[in-house]
Write a structure and sequence with these properties.
Layout: E1 2-5, E2 10-13, E3 37-43, E4 47-53, E5 58-65, E6 70-81, E7 84-92, E8 95-108, E9 111-114, E10 118-122, E11 137-145, E12 148-160, E13 165-172, E14 179-186, E15 195-198, E16 208-214, E17 225-226, E18 234-242, E19 245-256, E20 269-281
Antiparallel strand pairs: 1-2, 3-4, 3-10, 4-5, 5-6, 6-7, 7-8, 8-9, 9-10, 11-12, 11-20, 12-13, 13-14, 14-16, 15-18, 16-17, 17-19, 18-19, 19-20
Length: 282
């Protein structure tokens, strides 16, 4: 079975595809280099395909139709067998998938050729569908405060997976009035992967978490609660992360952001419990 991604002849293959199997011949060129790296094939103004072959044997790929403003991501594992590059696909557009691709490859003059026509050049960084802006983040951001569950609409997500940073912002209209929540984690200089991030507020700390909650963003006299003052506690557990998907749980105590202010009902802190983030870029 062959699926034509984006209708532009970029193939996701369940089975095995090779130039020889299509009845074409390609001169056998000895492979003296590994294809490990980040490669891009581009037709100006038409389409782009970026392929990351990581040292741990995993691959990720983003294929974009620039004319129709569509983007498809895929991921899995890779290996070489002689002149063949073998890709095993385990996910497409953040959903489980199963398939294989088999390309004859040649590396020459710093370029990677797959099959007969696709010639990739080396690039410095990987992209995701979010970089093209053809879709939007959607999903769930919820938490409980004073026994009341709040559901937030996602309004902004900034994700730098390889730089180790994430910011998620939501606005809630459940209950009385409107509230705002902002979550930030910083794992730099390491990339993001499943682990714990904690409120620390100590210079030089790593794997840090910042939480902000404002029950009345329209107030002119109250700046909200956050985790920067009076040594509050908090943790965000990142359970899954990819360039287009984030799943995490969190809880934190947020104190007055500005000393001397008073929150609604005279509150001096907010205890945020049972928080959950599950968002996908589509």
């Amino acid at each position: 079975m062959i699926l034509n991604l984006l209708g532009r002849g970029i193939l996701l293959v369940a089975g095995c595809l090779s130039v020889a199997a299509c009845g074409k011949s390609t001169p056998v060129v000895p492979i003296s280099e590994s294809p490990e790296g980040i490669w891009r094939f581009s037709e100006t103004g038409v389409s782009e395909s970026t392929l990351r072959l990581a040292s741990d044997g995993s691959f990720s790929r983003v294929v974009t139709d620039l004319e129709d403003r569509n983007c498809v991501s895929s991921s899995g594992s890779w290996r070489t067998d002689g002149e063949s590059l073998l890709l095993e696909i385990t996910a497409v557009s953040n959903a489980p998938a199963s398939g294989f691709e088999n390309y004859r490859f040649v590396i020459q003059d710093g370029r990677l050729q797959l099959g007969e026509t696709e010639i990739y050049t080396a690039v410095g960084s990987m992209v995701s569908c979010t970089d093209y802006g053809f879709g939007a983040w959607a999903g769930e951001l919820r938490a409980t405060s004073d026994g009341v569950e709040m559901l937030f609409e996602i309004v902004d997500v900034i994700l730098d997976m390889y730089g180790g940073q994430l910011q998620v912002e939501g606005i809630s209209t459940t209950g009385v009035g409107q509230s705002r929540m902002l979550l930030q984690i910083d794992g730099s200089p390491n990339p993001l992967n499943p682990r714990d991030f904690t409120v620390q507020n100590v210079p030089g700390s790593t794997n840090t978490f910042y939480g902000f909650y404002h029950p009345d963003p329209g107030s002119l006299t109250f700046s909200g609660f956050d985790t920067t003052r009076l040594l509050p506690t908090g943790i965000l557990t990142l359970s899954a992360v990819g360039p287009e998907r984030v799943t995490a749980t969190f809880s934190f105590r947020a104190n007055l952001r500005v000393e001397g202010e008073v929150g609604p009902g005279g509150a001096t802190f907010a205890q945020i419990e049972s928080g959950r983030v599950e968002i996908v870029y589509r």
